[in-house]
Amino acid sequence: MKGIIYILKRFLPPYRKYLFLTFTFNILTAVLNVFSLATIIPILQVLFKVNTATYSFIPWRNTDSSLIDTALNNVNWYVTQLIDTYGSSFALMMLAVVLVVMTLLKTGTAYFGSYFIIPIRTGVVKDIRNQINDKILTLPIGFFTEERKGDILARISGDVNEVENSVMSSLDMLFKNPILILIYLTTMTILSWQLTLFVLIVLPVMGFVMGRVGRSLKRSSFEAQNKWGELMSQVEETLSGLRIIKAFNAENKISDRFQAGSNTFRRMSNRIARRQQLAHPMSEFLGTLTIAIVLWFGGSLILDGNGVIDAATFIYYLTIFYSIINPAKELSKSAYAVQRGLASMERIDKILEAENPISEPVQPSPITFHKHIQYKEVWFKYQSDWVLRDVQLTIEKGKTIAFVGQSGSGKSTLADLLPRFYDIQQGGIFIDDINIKDVKLRDLRSLIGYVNQEAILFNDTFYNNIAFGVTRATESQVVEAAKIANAHDFIMATERGYNTNIGDRGGKLSGGQRQRISIARAILKNPEILILDEATSALDTNSEKLVQEALDNLMKNRTTIVIAHRLSTIKNADEIYVMKDGQIVEWGQHTSLYAQGGYYTKLCDMQGNLK
């Protein structure tokens, strides 16, 4: 029950209006069902002519009888009047009409009770997905190095669907089935408290047996959803690495790996589904057993002739009791769905409740960039080992500086710390003597443009990819940015020009074309600080020439940080910083550094003659 309340408290407040309407119509459904079934008593009395008593009308304000006794007396009086005046057939027809009208009203209110649950169900699912998506956007990049993309996709799809079913079941459990059961039990108590007391002893036994079956579902569902996440991750890896899989003839290996995981997931799903399917036959059997016991006990009361309950009323009592069976079964089925939903909610909460170590300042400082960027005694590690060690660095405004070194030396990490993709553990990074931790992330990142080794593009048009992240960009500005990036000509050569879709991750373009689109995007943003992370290392010679020309246009009058493996691209940098094992071991311009005969000289010699 705690889990149900937890889910409802989190997601239902925006839908109180619909919840109130659902609650109201569910009450009306239960009340109308009681009254519609009550017509069974006079119908049976008319059919079997068991009611030979004489009735007289009692005023509704009479204080000698209860309201219920007065109502029953007056109904019987009215039926006898109909029989005496029009005959038994007409009275029976009128009772049938009343039954039909009451049933019509009951089914109408039942429909509206379900009608107003639908906006809650779809709204909750929308809210959860929106929360997950917004959380993904706010979490630091470091969070996703520990998570598989496919597993995250599984949480936003399969797990959310499970929670949807769980919430729906929770609503039925709390706002429909208990209402029906309570009103039906109240009616049964009014008809015969002795028989109802016996029922209340028998019913909990059924609930206990059903509860025993469902307790292990939560753990099993949690394991199954984790396995589904693994399968989704494998699919994502297959799609991303399809070229390598085919090149290495590894289709069978990937297929065998996926089929093994798929078979495991199937076995888990079988166990869960079989246990879930056990709910209906078990509840059916236990419900029939309970009715048989009640039928025996109630029949004994009638046969004893002690006047506790008559035959027609007992039939009505059984009908009401049978009406309890269905909501009781639904209650047990809801418990199964809730257990599965809570297991999925735990997986979703791993994202929603993940702590973001990169926090916004309470009182942010305004940021300007007129003088320099400073790294002061910067220490950083991802997990246990230090990646950067006591880095001291000053970058003057308008200068082009380069980080070089072997893979793993900390070059890209040093650049990633500037826009706060990660936060340092010791030291500080300052722009014009203002600590970047004291500045709004949005303000800080608005100063910085990024061009990566792998051009990150979206399944959209040329226009929207270039204008990405720039509000109110005009068409002329987009075209101008594309021209500066040497991209305008090949864009216009496509069928729809700037409105042409470039495919998933720009798959319809060559590597050089993708890179020039990402450069055009950076040009349109017009950042004061530019970070180029291996921007040309994956290109052929012809593409590199075009991209380098576009980069030269982009770098004019900007502070530029270049991360390079290919040292020929940074020979003209104002300052080159050589990194090794997370430290800056050498710095200076290319000529002087090479003349020192140190670590930089070795790097240059390994790539050929760069004197």
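The record above closes out task 2.4. Task 2.5 opens with a second protein, given below.
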Amino acid sequence: MVNLAKGLARRGVLELEPYTCARGLFKKAEVFLDANESPYGRAGLNRYPDSDQLELRRAIANYVGMGTSWRNVVAGNGSDELIDLAMRVFCERGDSIICVYPDYSMYRVTAEVNGLRVTVSQLGKDFRIDAESITSRADPRTKMVFFSSPNNPTGRLQPLEEIKKLAKGIKAMVFVDEAYAEFSGESAAGLVNKIPNLIVSRTFSKAWGLAGIRIGYVVASKEVIDLIMKIKPPYSVSVPSQRLALRALSAGRAKMAKDVRILSSDREAMAAGLSALWFEVFPSAANFLLCKCPRWADAANVQKKLAERSIIIRDFSGKRRLENSVRITIGRPKENRRLLLELRRVLAQSFDAVLFDIDGTLIDISQSYNTAIRLAAEELSGRRVSMREVQGVKAMEGMNNDWNATAELLRRIGSDATTGRVVPVFQRFYLGDGSLRGLISNEKALLDPGMLKAIGRRKVGIVTGRPRSEAMMAMEKLGLPRNTPLVSMDDCVEEKPAPEPLLLAKKLTGSVNPVYIGDSASDRAAAANAGMPFVAIMKGRMQKGEFARFGDVNAALRGLFE
């Protein structure tokens, strides 16, 4: 182990006479007159921190466990300092390092600052490392390999077996950045005393919630730690920062673990919310999500529009393999809800047409169509039928056509009836005849006058299971122009939930990115089959396949477009 570390280290580091201070030789005293400090100060801040970080290193080793001791640990001014120190221990100007892509960009930046060549190895399709691929990129001057696990920005956890395979198969130091290890629950830190060329870095910035104190630390073999300590500035971690880290390690572990559990749960809730907004969400074992924006939205514009609403996310759309993607950190529940709300509004700005269902969305049919279903079923069955039974059938996918819904209700209550028998009875109740006032007269508009102004210049279309003549009556009641694009049951061979009616409406409106607003399971399924976002006019919680859910159409238009 000693020979391997020394064999990879720079000769200048091996021969270096490290900086020493008197206090490093004599730790305890009553009078300190060695370091030209002021004798005056508050809270002990007039004194330099312990250059050996003994108390902090012991506390970190105790936390890491897995057979590590304080001799396996060194802390730095953030992980970035330790990345730089590791490079300066093992790499001469002109040497090379291997980075994977996509990954944290500071490895490359630090290498270039130090005059090193950077070779890039692509992660696999699932963003996992491939030991053989990385090893094949090495050359005689390759001194280090850098990658993060979980990966930043994808959140992908790298398999321990592949890390071991890589470290054992390459003659270079393997630096694993585990900034998000607490979220993944896995760590390679327990391998450092068995694999001499393995370095694992961790941080207080993520799970601990202490990014402001700027403390990272490295876990490695004693020989590697001794080499890093040899060139490390003696006082790079301040007294206040060390105190806060020690306090967290001694009294804050339970809180940190609780925070991790909450954030992990909220991450899954956020993933579901983003998926509902048509984002492609990548699996994550960290406190963030990488997601590809919907096909109709531009990631850079999404970031800009959210910033205008005082929300900042990270745009990765300029990166190869991450095109049109953003990275979203998991915040507090209130912040997460606000993000999803504002994202919905931002994405809705890209809709170029709004397609509406009529029944239950634009027109109240509780005293017309639904009542006609009940009365027709009662007449044809000779038994009482409740509105609950009617609503149960209407809630089924495929019951967009009220004639079919009546026939299905009859079958459910044990009275066989064909649609052919249903239609004349249903229509008599709905439209009326010489002796019966039609239930159609009970219909009321649900859309407030003037609310269509919220849609702005977007095109408007109607997609309904009504016959065309009845759809035109509804449009007149709503005050819609007669030339409003309309797809009725008369216009397609297949009705909702088939996609044809929506695709025809999309064609008639000349739209590219329409949204469909409806109130039934058939409406939701039709939108999904047509590859179109769906806004539900329903009570209760959102369900899978819904872009948004509102209690009424006016709230939907205000929530999406105002």
